[in-house]
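Archive entry. Fields below.
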Amino acid sequence: MSEYAQAQNRERQQRLERVWGNLPGWGALAAVNHTTVGLRFIATGLMFFLVGGLLAMLIRTQLALPGQDIIESGLYNQLFTMHGTVMMFLFAIPVLEGLAMYLIPKMIGTRDLVFPRLSALGYFCYVFGGLIVLSSLVLEVAPDAGWFMYTPLSSATYSPGPGSDFWLLGITFVEISAISAGIELVVSILRTRAPGMSLNKMPIFCWYILAMALMIVFGFPPLILGSVLLELERAAGFVFFETAGGGDPLLWQHLFWLFGHPEVYIIFLPAAGIVSTLIPVFARHPLVGYRWIVLSIITMGFISFGLWVHHMFTVGIPHLAQAFFSVASMLVAIPTGIQIFSWLATLWQGKVVFHLPMLWIIGFLVVFVCGGLTGVMLALAPFNWQVHDTHFVVAHMHYVLVGGMLFPLVAGLYYWLPHVSGRMPSDSLGRWGFWLFFGGFNLTFLLMHLTGLLGMPRRIYTYEAGLGWDWLNLVSSVGGFIMAIGVAVIVVDIVLHFRFGKRAEQNPWGADTLEWAIPMPVNTFNFSSLPSVDTRHPMWHTPRLVESIAAGEHGLADVQALRRDIYGSDATTGKLQEVVHLPTNSWLPLMTASALAALCVSLLMKAYLLAAVFTIVALGLVLRWGWENGAHPRAAPTDHNEAGAPPLHSRTFSGPGLWGMVVGLMADGTFYASLMFGWFYLWTAAPEWTVPAHDSVTLLPMILSGLVLTVAVIAYCHLVKGLRRGFAAHLGARLWLIAALGVGHWVLLAGQLVSAPLAPTERAHDAVLVVILLYLLLHSGLAVIFTSLQAVRARLGYTAVQLPYEPVVIQPFWLYTLGVYWVSFVAFVLLSNAWSVG
Amino acid sequence: MFGWFTAVLVGVIALWLFAIKRSPGKASAAHLRKVQKRWIIWGGLALPVSTITVVLAFGLPLGQRMLPQSSPEGGELRIEVTAHQWWWEVNYPDSGISLRNELHIPAGRPVNLHLTSADVIHSFWVPRLGGKLDAIPGHTNILRLHADEAGTYRGQCAEFCGRDHAHMGFTVTAHEPSDYQQWVGQEVSDE
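PREDICTED_STRUCTURE:
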């Protein structure tokens, strides 16, 4: 390259940096860039890990000797509840999400995730939610009913303090962040891969993350529903889980584990993805059995939703059901086995170079296989009856979670450190850290299996001497402290490496994936030009990519109209489809998350008027957010595009927004399905279920309201169909008309809610009906607001026949609203009324 | 079960370490593919499937036998246990005896415990006499208890139930059948 060309290239890169960079100083809080947000997630998650670890140390101190009184029972219960909560919700999931957010765009050869502001919102929701949950510990009112919050222990009668509210509200808040990350990762992986990267050329890590993200979308809503219902029961006296009035405490357990079991795999899959990424690199051999592994990832995802009941083997469920869930639970061993032996075969055929991350991978294997085997034992009901809720389960769970998540995570952290810092970690300190941690871990938990078999239940703050548990507990505590020293060594190692680490050369491990084509330490726009990909191992087949990308020889090399641009591609073939223009730095995520945090705190203080105010503020901010989107001139200033380049996504019919909407509705639909499950569950299984003698809801207005909604949705679909054909006369007026129909429907329905003789604080039946009516009102209300805004945008010219993007995005929401309305009409209203008449 | 599982654990780890140490040597691509497939099919499919089958073949019938069924000759003793925060209420409906935190049962004869709770969820567990079962408000679960030998057995609440969960213990005393009758007689006359 001539000197002139080099100068040109530098200027080009500076232009990219100006458009993609974060704002200086405090402006960094407005950052939406996936690299920044991902690293923030990881760093914050590691902080919470240290907090959770500290709690564990306190627990082990109390249990070290029998009959100790260092920590009294009340505080101990807060400690173990918070240990579980912090580690699961504030460490494991967010850290892995952060890692995925950081890596995915880099691995699929693009510049950012597809909804950057959503990433930032997710981060702030996570931090604020986490701080709210942690603050309860400082205020000495931390939740103390165990991390799975079984009712009635967690209900208002038996946990009158605010502890459970902190948990329910704070964790729900954190879950918003998980779901937003889930949606974003799914759409990014499916729609913004490098041109030519078909699904079967995708790095294996992306498959794992795709599965994880989809599992979050389907796995979290049941718990969100459970939390909403329990909070309604605690705060407003609605009946859902209380036996008197027709609730059932077991419903909570079903909802919790419907989430809780997939969650284990949500944590395990990305970690296994790290293993599948690292092993081929260090074995210098492509991953053996790529297709087998993809298949087992998918199988695992499906099976994991079918075995939640194995957490409930001792609640007295029928034997046939136990047998079914036993078998289902054991089946997980098959996809796990396939992965373990694929990794083995890869190592077998490759020539392994041994570095620090490999040590952690071996640690993972030993610990995880052990945990998996005790898992198979636990899946067997008679064995489970014996060791359920004992320290055997505690040991098993730590083997699976620490083995299946923490070991691969640390391997991954060491592996990707040079990518972030441009420096190599130290080998010797790292080995010390590993051996201390590994030794301490096994000392703590291997013997704990025996403690459990000898009959020590979990969650007891003290125990008598002479039951054979004394020395075992002492050894476990000593092991725990050795493990803590190991963590300290690793932290020191990582901190020191930022200053003293050896400079890393490009692609220091000799990896095959695209993230190593980025200059180190990482910049804000990843690739200064976007390459096409036609192989699973781009860096092995075309090492020159590093230079050609930097020289701007590939796509979207220069900034257009000061926009952040990436490529959008076909979901399966990876064929180039459109140019997606992304929003830039924005304060709206921080403001929205702050409003939501204020809402959360006002609910905690039971200041409901204030809560209503903040709800409106948050809604306003979200609408403001949506305003500068799509074809708004601030989002896409001009049509002007590189000659011959594909169209801007805001000029097409199937941009990422539509995909985001559909995936979002999947989560919403799961929430609804869980509510329906709860309804039928209570109907059939609650010991004191009662149906009122009179009709709960009047049929005629319900039918009328539904018909008005149907007309509105038909009109909307007609309008979108017209847009697709290039016909858009009276667009604004028609949108107003549809919104007006929606309002008519809403008013009729709201009238029902007000006038119906429902007693939600007395009967679970009525409580569920109130929730379902509110759910329907929320949806049609939002649909009306969206459509009204579209009408305004049509007048301003942001929505038009050549700019059809946004009405297409809203269409599925209308259809969904219509669908749940009629399903609810049949499953809730008709069923209930038929019963009361008959 | 523990023996076989330990063997699997040690075997897998040993194979991994050997695979890391081993140098691959030269082999044709076709041969390599065959070796790969063999690993996945034998290790990834056959091993877990056979293990699961064996475990289930033993485990499922065992689980079936441990459930409370009315035996043909009848004669199970019925005891009603209601859990409270943080103590156990024990009632013998046949003889009208009530006890607190202790059970007395005849050895060698099946006993059906009807478990429920007056407040939160608890779990009834005597480690040496078998599995545990939850006591849930609004539900009644039946646990079959069978002590082969006379003696005193320690029991404890196994489901976390609040402040004094750690202190919610109880004892089960199994008597020889004749002693048991004597004990019942004495309790009834005391009341």
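CURATOR_NOTE: The beta strands of chain A are 423-424, 502-503, 564-569, 576-582.
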